[in-house]
Amino acid sequence: MCLENARPTAAADVIAALAAGDFRPELLREALSFDHAAQPLLFDLARQARDLHFPEKKVEVRSVIELSNTCVRDCRYCNMASSLPRERYRIEPAAFEEITAAIYRRGRRVLLLQSGENPAQSFVDYVCRCIEAVKARFSDLRITLCLGNLHPHQYRRLRQAGAERYILKFETSNPALYRRLKPHDSLGQRLACVEHLLSAGFAVGTGNIVGLPGQSLDDIAADLLLAKQYPVSMISCTAFIPSEDSPYRAEPAGSLNLTLAAMALTRIMNPRVLMPTTSSLEKAGEDGQYRGLMAGANTVTVHDGTPPALKPLFPIYSLKRVVPNEAHLREVVRRAGMRVSMEALHG
């Protein structure tokens, strides 16, 4: 029987098709539906794809500094939505420089700067000053930004300041679902920002959230195909966590197994990208970040940059979010048979 003309009924047939580069939506949907007996085949293929292009089995370690929790968006799944009466903060430039110096002394060479979405020019100018100050001192530091939707000229200015990477997840490829999640934004606007970032010369990361209220398996398959359309350097699949202060607080969390399946398919479809095993996986289920590495991930983030007093003010997916320390991440990397890299990896 020709595989191209028939719907595969066995997991082995699906795996063979994926290995051959067949990413039809129905195949992706079937792989997302694998049971516990079939999932290991998917994870094995994902690790093979990763190890072929990253043969040294290194895991990039990023330190994160959450610059500010001010946000203009009112996303229905987020604890930092603009309508919530949360205390807002911004780390002062001098304090930022001291934090970065301490991170650099610990051997880190990859820094992730994250904030709520704030397109005010004064905020973008502040971020540029921070970047320029630390790049002048630490020229080998690689800076990744996660600041949300901005204007094209602001992206260009941030790139000129010295940032090399930018993460902008599209969250979902379903325009109607996107509008429900983010009522003052649209999928079209988000994807236009991805294109502006690529034009500005950034190494771009994107991706989705798995388990969103109202999301279907067909939506997730479409997410995977949408991410593959762009020449991105990083792709992330994270599990939906119902934020306690959000309108979605009573919704069920995303399935860890389904998220891992989406991660494995992402790796198979995009073998050269960097893919994180995020702290949301640890929140979604036991050993989540270790299992993320076993599903094809190759980056981790250490939450050692934001001052302890400010961490509770950045509850992006949970008031009790997991903030992995270096010891935990080194252990999961060791268990996965991989090695920690303080230097930036290149897909």
Helix-strand layout with pairing:
Blueprint: H1 11-19, H2 25-32, H3 39-53, E1 58-68, H4 93-105, E2 110-115, H5 121-137, E3 142-146, H6 152-161, E4 165-167, H7 175-181, H8 187-199, E5 203-210, H9 217-229, E6 234-239, H10 256-269, H11 279-284, H12 288-294, E7 299-302, H13 326-335, E8 339-341
Parallel strand pairs: 1-2, 1-7, 1-8, 2-3, 3-4, 4-5, 5-6
Helix pairs in contact: 1-2, 2-9, 3-10, 4-5, 5-6, 9-10
Descriptive account of the structure:
This protein has 347 residues and is an alpha/beta fold. The chain is 41% helix and 13% strand. It has 13 helices and eight strands. The chain has helices at residues 11-19, 25-32, 39-53, 93-105, 121-137, 152-161, 175-181, 187-199, 217-229, 256-269, 279-284, 288-294, 326-335; strands at residues 58-68, 110-115, 142-146, 165-167, 203-210, 234-239, 299-302, 339-341. Strands 1, 2, 3, 4, 5, 6, 7 and 8 form an eight-stranded parallel β-sheet that branches. Helix 9 links the parallel strand 5 and strand 6. The chain is globular and about 60 Å long. It starts with 10 loop residues before the first helix and ends in a 6-residue tail after the last strand.
